[in-house]
Amino acid sequence: MDSLVASSASVPRASTLMTERVLFALNEHECATFFPGILPELAGGEVRWRPSGPLTPASWAELLEEFQPTVLVSCWSTPSLPSSFAAADSPLRYVCHLVGSARNLVPRAYLERGGLLTNWGALAGDTVAEHALLLALSVLRRQPNWRTVITTRATPWRSGTDRLQTRTLIGRRVGIHGFGHVARALVRLLQPFNVEIAAFSAGVPHSIMREAGVTPCHSLPELAARSEVFFECEALTPHTTASIDAAVLASLPDHAVFVNVGRGRTVDEPALLREAESGRIQIALDVVTHEPLVADSPVVALSGVVLSPHIGGPTHDRFPDCGRFALANLDRYLRGEPLEALITPELYDRST
Question: What are the beta bridge partners of residue 24?
């Protein structure tokens, strides 16, 4: 961490809170990725960086017990919190998570006793929606087959678009399963394509969808039946696991496009692959049931599928924005101001 340089413009101030103990539990790669060229400091508070090298459960527990942090800044490599730090008598009051879901880090009991938790909030929504749009367009324009057309000699009177049987997104009927940050960002991106958008998400009031110009559906089969392009954006919960089952997939119109940028386990993957293998629908997947994909996976063997390696977002160039967002939240906490992207128990239950 010594190679990082302090930047006063990005340093939270805590002149009135002298007793805060802030632990940055990041490895060196995460620190360089989210705080490039910046070494965050707390004026008046006590800051400690995670020691170099991997943390074992024993060394992690020892570090927490010795430092007794009141604030934890966490990331992908941060080990899970011991149950003792979820207890009401724990000194930990705020976990500032740099990335998305913190379910593997923070037990629900921590939130139940009033502990604060934030993540990168809506910063991921726009980039995941952008990636979803890319995947849909790639399928419609038959991107997996482009190289074959480029490298083989076609019959002179047949154009590339004719050989590929390309299609457009313009004017399509679009369905979105889920209506969180990603889905709402996707609605905005789809507007120039003059599409008809419908959505379904259990528990989301229909009025919220209508305000966004989206037609609410009452069930997944109803949504699927009207969707020429279907985007899976729903959070993974016990209720949504395998909710995209064989019956829902069979409800999709012939030649529909199915795009998953949510979670692999919301889909009955064998049923999805059977539909795709039949040629009845086309699919694009940023997430699958078992990640990372291995070379002999039936998903990889499927022809015509568009695959991406769970890179929906945020993109690498947005990680410093996530770092600045976290530091701004930390500054708010130290000043006693409301936090942004606060995770409630209800949002925690819908995260994955």
Answer: 49, 73
41, 11 Cβ separation under 8 angstroms: yes
* Upper half-sphere CA count for residue 273 (Cβ side, 13 Å): 13
Residue 296 and residue 326 in one domain: no
Residue 188 pLDDT greater than 80, yes or no:
yes
**Residue 336 backbone zone (phi > 0: left; psi -120 to 50: alpha; other: beta):** left
Is position 99 within any domain? Answer: yes
- Expressed in percent and rounded to 5, the helix, strand and coil fractions of the chain are 40, 15, 50
Per-residue model confidence (pLDDT) at position 237: 87
Kindly report, residue by residue over 202-245, the tens digit of the pLDDT: 989 999 999 999 999 999 999 999 999 999 999 898 899 999 99
Domain range spanning residue 299? 123-307
Q: What is the pLDDT of residue 348?
A: 87
Nearest to 300 by CA among 31, 202, 308: 308
* Tokens describing residue 221: 């089969």
